[in-house]
Amino acid sequence: MVNLGTGVVLVRRVCMTVLLIIGFLTGMPAAGETGSAHADSGTLNLLLANRNGFVIAADSRRSRPSPFAYWDDSQKLFRVGPKSAAVISGFASWVNGGSPIDFQVAAALREEFSDTEWEKGKRKLPNLPPTLMSLVGEQLTMFAGLLAANGESPTALNFQMLAAGFDKSKLVLLRLEFRPHIEVYGPFGLPVPRYEPVVTTKVVRHFECLSAGVDDLARSVLDGGFSTIDPRILEYYRARNEGKLDQLSLNSLEDLAVAILEETKRVTPVVGGPDQIGVFPKHGSVRWHLPELPGSRQKLRSTVLNVGASYSWEGFPANEHSQMRGKQAFSEISMSLSQPFEEQFTQVFLGGMIRDVPVMLDGNVFAGNRFINVHFRYAGRPFHFDSSNHLEACWLQISEGVEFPNSTELRQCTVGRVRAVVQEHTVGSSIRARPVGCVSRSSNGRIVIKKKGRQHGFDCKNSRIEVPQAIGPFQLQRPPSIDGIGDFTNNPVNECNGDFSTN
Asked: pTM for the full model?
């Protein structure tokens, strides 16, 4: 829920998100790290179920199509509860070689499913679609925007989840397809999709199989048409021909899943790496095999996504103003419930016009923007400055003792050294969440907001998380200069009072 008068946002669970449609830019006065983003592709998901239970499996590979490269570091299998699990396929990240937001989708799922209500089975598969609509949809929109800035068609960027779990005595299968709805934003007409899940469910009464990703060979096996001498697949063929698939043991279904993964790895380089497998019997203990993967250690980052927003102190020349006139822009705040309060949000700037203002590079991501007469500032923290950005006259101020950033594009800027760059009051200046009142952390590091009683003299009903809003395009009016930057004060605050976990 968004109260535009006060900037208040109330959210039930994982992500605190405020969507501000900055809107139609008719009121404007006329006057890291470098590289290109690429979508991950390639995976195989399998879900095999019968009256004995289910087997759910995936590979660990993510790959880049051009030039081809791959990494066997991607978690695709997630434990959703005591008797349920899910696998993901499709585009779920971008290839940027070490960005803190490379694995945001997987990190968001890990954070969500660490909630004790999932771990104890109080929340079940029917709760997945409404939870993931914003949780996953926000991350996909961010990645798709980064890829669209590099000219990739967002219509091809789809994402799927297969899930299964026991609801009392029933075994339920679920498929969620996140399909893009494209809207155009900003002065350069950046096509950015918003995602909503399309859900199908099925109660298992007989043998069922679902697959996703690079699954042509898998479907050929499951349809009985793949020629092989593999005894694991031949056992499945015999049971299929005799109408006895419901009698196959879960060990046999697990063997079948492993065999299909092995055969697929032989014919395509985009499926590979260690297998990730869960075996869930109707009765008995779960077997869970999730190898240690580098990508599985990334925590969810709090982010601010700015799409199509333009910034200037003095306004824009007539030709630039005409490009912005009538164009939409939006800012979206998504907050991790586990990120320490002292860590800053990662701000992502896409498809905007940025003129005559200071811009802080540290910790931020920039793609598809046009910078004119901009003073960049760099204090040494990692950032991503995409090759899709366009620069016209720029200056780069670097703190003493800090190496020049690894950015080909920024080398055209005039460079100056200072004892320490001033970070405040710049586009991209640090944003951090602030706890107010009865706010603590659970044993697994998640935010807990107490809403009843008193604590240390504070009335807990007013407890909240405040997120100071970033400098927005309509706040850039030049005040008396301070160190050549300008003094921006009284920025609105987003107050997040959601009952993440309330006492």
From this structure: 0.84
Q: Return the HEC string of 29-42.
A: CECCEEECCCECEC
Q: Kind and range of the H or E element at 64?
A: strand 62-64
User: What gap in Å lies between CA 56 and CA 339, rounded to an integer?
Assistant: 30
Contact at 8 Å (CB) between 449 and 439?
yes
In a domain, 37, yes or no: no
362 in Cβ contact with 383 (< 8 Å): yes
Q: Are residues 19 and 106 in the same domain?
A: no
Phi and psi, residue 459, nearest 5°: -75, 110
- Averaged pLDDT, groups of 10, the chain, 503 residues long: 28 38 34 49 90 97 84 93 94 61 88 92 90 88 90 83 93 94 94 92 96 96 97 98 97 98 96 97 96 84 93 87 89 92 94 94 94 95 92 95 89 94 88 91 88 85 84 46 33 45 42
d(CA 445, CA 442): 5
Of the residues 286, 315, 340, the one at which a domain ends: 286
Q: Are 267 and 257 in contact (CB under 8 A)?
A: no
Q: What is the span of the domain harbouring residue 406?
A: 2-30+301-496
Same domain, 26 and 59: no
Contact criterion met (CB below 8 Å) for 57 and 86: no
Hey, is 369 helix, strand or coil? Answer: coil
223 is a domain residue: no
Residue 166 and residue 54 in one domain: yes
> Pick from 286, 309, 336: which residue ends a domain?
286
One-character DSSP codes across 242-306: TT-GGG--HHHHHHHHHHHHHHHHHH-TTS-SS-EEEEEESSS--EEE----GGGGPPPPPEEEE
| Predicted pLDDT of residue 337 | 92
CB 245 within 8 A of CB 222: no
93 lies in the same domain as 26: no
